[in-house]
Specification:
The chain has 15 helices and no strands. By secondary structure, it is mainly alpha-helical. The chain has a single domain, classed as Orthogonal Bundle (Farnesyl Diphosphate Synthase), CATH 1.10.600.
Length: 282
């Protein structure tokens, strides 16, 4: 007998590797959650390539595999893979823009460069191409008739969350020889990719993080303004704004140190933020 409480492969993938968005998906209509988990699992697969390969060429090969896998899915002959199997099931129920998924893969090619971001505009493009497009994709599955305002609201919610995610992930990225801080910000402080983490430059580094947190805060403010004009149908997608606000608050409390314990937020606190956001309080 199958345990009805047992999570599917894609649900497990989402919970393990994208726990925040997995929790947000719990606020979506129950009959759509598996579809959302499938998309989250797809995103998890392409977003973790950088940390699982020994050299960029191998990463390029894996990204190309996913490009071809999407093409096979669109043609009705999906490649053999648990995530592709799940996406094939989603495809039978609804439709989405395959180009958005291909654009998400292209955005992940940025991760294969050790220091790819040149300025704030480039950081916004990266955050939009990763988190923004993903949230837009999720919204299209929840509300296939979503309009341009809905699309914009979802995109902005995902982008601001991704911006904060870049800051929170600085220590992790550093361990994997990746730096997503804009070169222009480093240059303004007289720093380079080689000197940014040196002890004598700590104040300058924290200043850069604070400035980028302010950029994310402004992006979140706009995201919330647009969200008020969007369809209630995509409300669950926009709950991500509540977690972005929570992380920004913790980042400020930690004096913009991304390695501070305050940035490790427990699940209960996140759930509270999402519940309050769902009630229109957070």
């Amino acid at each position: 007998m199958v345990d009805r409480n047992e999570l599917s492969y894609v649900a497990q993938e989402a919970r393990q590797y994208d726990h925040d968005r997995w929790m947000v998906a719990l606020f979506a209509p129950a009959h759509l959650r598996e579809n959302l988990y499938s998309l989250l699992a797809f995103n998890s697969e392409i977003s973790r390539i950088r940390e699982t390969v020994s050299e960029p060429m191998i990463g390029d090969i894996r990204l190309q595999w996913w490009r071809e896998a999407l093409e096979s899915l669109e043609q009705g002959t999906p490649k053999s893979h648990p995530v592709m199997d799940a996406l094939a099931c989603v495809q039978k129920q609804t439709s989405w823009a395959f180009k958005v998924m291909q654009d998400m893969i292209d955005a992940r090619s940025t991760d294969l460069d050790a220091a790819p971001i040149h300025d704030d505009a480039g950081l916004l493009v990266y955050a939009g191409g990763t988190g923004g497009l993903l949230q837009q994709l999720l919204a299209s599955v929840i509300h296939p008739e979503f309009n341009e305002t809905d699309k914009d609201a979802a995109f902005r919610a995902g982008r601001s969350f991704a911006l904060v995610g870049v800051l929170r992930a600085i220590p992790f990225h550093a361990r994997n020889d990746l730096l997503l801080l804009p070169h222009s910000r480093l240059a303004n402080e007289g720093l380079t990719t080689e000197t940014v983490f040196q002890a004598e430059n700590r104040n300058s580094f924290l200043k850069i993080v604070e400035e980028l947190a302010n950029l994310a805060q402004e992006d979140l403010r706009t995201a919330r303004e647009v969200a008020r004009q969007a369809s209630p149908m995509i409300k669950s997608v926009q709950l991500l704004n509540s977690l972005t606000a929570l992380y920004l608050k913790r980042l400020k409390a930690s004096k913009f140190d991304p390695s501070h314990p305050k940035l490790t937020v427990g699940s209960q606190r996140k759930v509270l933020a999402l519940v309050l956001g769902n009630l229109g309080i957070g």
